[in-house]
Automatic annotation (TrEMBL):
Subcellular location: Mitochondrion inner membrane
Family designation: Belongs to the mitochondrial carrier (TC 2.A.29) family.
First-listed, main subcellular location of the protein, grouped into a coarse class: mitochondrion
Keyword Transmembrane helix among record annotations: yes
Topological relation to the membrane, as annotated: Multi-pass membrane protein
GO biological process, one term: transmembrane transport
Keywords per UniProt: Membrane, Mitochondrion, Mitochondrion inner membrane, Repeat, Transmembrane, Transmembrane helix, Transport
GO CC terms of this entry: mitochondrial inner membrane
Protein name listed in UniProt: Solute carrier family 25 member 48
Organism: Equus caballus
SUPFAM superfamilies in the record: Mitochondrial carrier
């Protein structure tokens, strides 16, 4: 990717100091599209398990979705992420790479020398990417989850349903992504598009740190000294392992985010992040997080596809 090393590459000479590279954004777009295509069916199952009811385990969820909605049920709400997450991923990867490159050049004092890369540079670049991801990704995640969850059964007992609530099997609350956006803005205002953003911030800032840093370290460790850049197999393996590490730590807050964003399709159940954590703990105990980790680990496949599409552009 240009003359500057991709994350994980050993790299040769780099361009002029502070050079902004659009290739990083294009590569992120390709990686984002690949991750959506590979991971959306698993993401649908994950969301149903985290925020839905009536599923015993992963296989039970898969059978139930297929029986009720056929194979197309796994791809419900995919059109909006496919169109938007590619752009979102493009920005996140572009911001990370250019921030990391800029910070690395600050340590380079000799003209023509290759920039040095420190752990603190990777950490700061990952944190910046995490903050940016929330600003762009919160509405995308909200629309995707609302579309995924609107066919779910809900329990009316002890819950105050909204006037627009409809029963399962009747007309869905949303007819598509555009209708979903307009409905949320009309009923909840623009702030409604950022429901669950605080939980997403607590998920993404540490999550991206534990995604980008392990990927860079693992890909450099796997790649032989004689090679200038990691092979596609090394990229996929390092990306998958980094995705598993990231999701293993980010899943508890991802559960909270999913429940807050799904909240509001038919009913309002949670008052905020702390209330959601308290209610989840009261009903499910500490197992709410470990069980979700196993389900979220499936998305490590997305991590491999994501980073492979990015690096191999």
């Amino acid at each position: 990717m240009g003359t500057d090393p991709a994350p994980g590459g050993r790299g040769a000479a780099a361009p002029a100091m502070g050079n902004f590279q659009m290739e990083d954004f294009a590569a992120g777009w390709i990686g984002g599209a690949a991750s959506v295509i590979v991971g959306h069916p698993l993401d649908t199952v994950k969301t149903r398990l985290q925020a839905g009811i009536g599923y015993g385990n992963t296989l039970s969820c898969i059978r139930t979705v297929y029986r009720r909605e056929s194979v197309f049920g796994f791809f419900k709400g995919m059109s909006f992420p496919l169109a938007s997450i590619a752009v979102y991923n493009s920005v996140v990867f572009g911001v990370f790479s250019n921030t990391q490159r800029f910070l690395s050049w600050q340590h380079c004092r000799e003209p023509g020398a290759s920039p040095s890369r420190t752990l603190s540079d990777l950490l700061l670049a990952s944190m910046v990417a995490g903050v940016v991801s929330v600003g762009l990704g919160a509405p995308v995640d909200l629309i995707k989850i609302r579309l995924q969850m609107q066919t779910q059964p809900f329990q009316e007992g002890n819950l105050s349903l909204k006037p627009r609530a409809v029963a399962l099997g009747e007309q869905p609350a949303y007819q598509g992504p555009v209708h979903c956006i307009t409905t949320i803005v009309r009923t909840e205002g623009l702030a409604g598009l950022y429901r669950g953003a605080s939980a997403m911030l607590l998920r993404d800032v540490p999550g991206y740190c534990l995604y980008f840093i392990p990927y860079v370290l693992l890909s450099e460790w796997i790649t032989p000294e004689a090679c200038a850049a990691p092979s596609p197999c090394a990229v996929w393996l390092a990306g998958g392992m980094a995705g598993a590490i990231s999701w293993g730590t980010a899943t508890p807050m991802d559960v909270v985010k999913s429940r807050l964003q799904a909240d509001g399709v038919y009913l309002n159940k949670y008052k905020g992040v702390l209330d959601c954590i308290a209610q989840s703990y009261q009903k499910e105990g500490l197992k709410v997080s470990p069980t979700a980790v196993t389900r979220g680990q499936c998305q490590s496949l997305e991590g491999g596809s994501d980073i492979l599409g990015y690096v191999r552009l």
